[in-house]
Structures are given as structure tokens and as C-alpha cells.
Write a structure and sequence with these properties.
Layout (H helix, E strand, L loop, with lengths): L13 H13 L11 E8 L8 E8 L2 E13 L3 E8 L4 E5 L12
Antiparallel strand pairs: 1-2, 2-3, 3-4, 4-5
Length: about 110
């Protein structure tokens, strides 16, 4: 599987950005749209967002919808998390929140 490693620089403290994105995972991910390929986002718990948290959503690729269930399996509060497919197409997503200019360790 190919690794895709985009990054975004945000002029805000990493823990603030972490909490903003974590709250979005607990609700509806309104900042992702159908154009991004994510529809029908449904958090299925447990709350609050942490290790073990799961979501269901439909990932649209080339116009075809794939029902996915993803679980947060690694969680470092205020710093990072990793989520893995439980049902659906295989994927792993790693989110790292760090000060601008600081490099992150490689993900294995």
C-alpha cells in the first residue's frame, strides 16, 4: 500500500488543533465534504474520542461508495493518534500534531 503523507501548517498551538480535530471526529467531520470522498460520517463510540473510539462512514472513490469502520488504536492525548480499518478497505491513518518546523518520527 502506498504511503501518502500530506501536512498542513496551522498558526495555532498543536494541542488546540488536536482538540479541534478530535471534536470533529466525535461529531460529523463537517469540514470533510463529498468532494473529499467522505460521506455519512457516524461516530459509534465510545466517547470521548480516545483509544478504542470508532466511526462508520462511506468513502467514495471514483463514484463508488465503500462502507468503512475505523478504530483509533493508538492515542497520545494532545499529540497524535492512529486509526485502522476494522471493516472495509484496508487503511491506516496517522495524525501528528507538533510545532511548525519540528520533524516527526517515522511511522512504522
Amino acid at each position: 500500500m502506498a504511503d501518502i503523507e500530506p501536512s498542513i501548517d496551522i498558526e495555532a498551538p498543536p494541542d488546540f488543533v488536536f482538540r479541534f480535530v478530535a471534536r470533529a471526529w466525535e461529531t460529523d467531520m463537517g469540514f470533510w465534504t463529498a468532494e473529499d470522498g467522505v460521506v455519512d460520517w457516524t461516530p459509534i463510540g465510545p466517547m470521548p474520542f480516545s483509544k478504542g473510539f470508532r466511526i462508520e462512514y462511506v468513502a467514495k472513490q471514483l463514484g463508488v461508495g465503500f462502507r468503512m469502520e475505523v478504530e483509533v488504536k493508538e492515542f497520545d492525548d494532545g499529540k497524535s493518534w492512529s486509526a485502522f480499518t476494522v471493516k472495509g478497505l484496508p487503511l491506516r491513518g496517522d495524525w501528528r500534531f507538533q510545532p511548525i518546523g519540528e520533524s516527526s518520527p517515522p511511522v512504522e
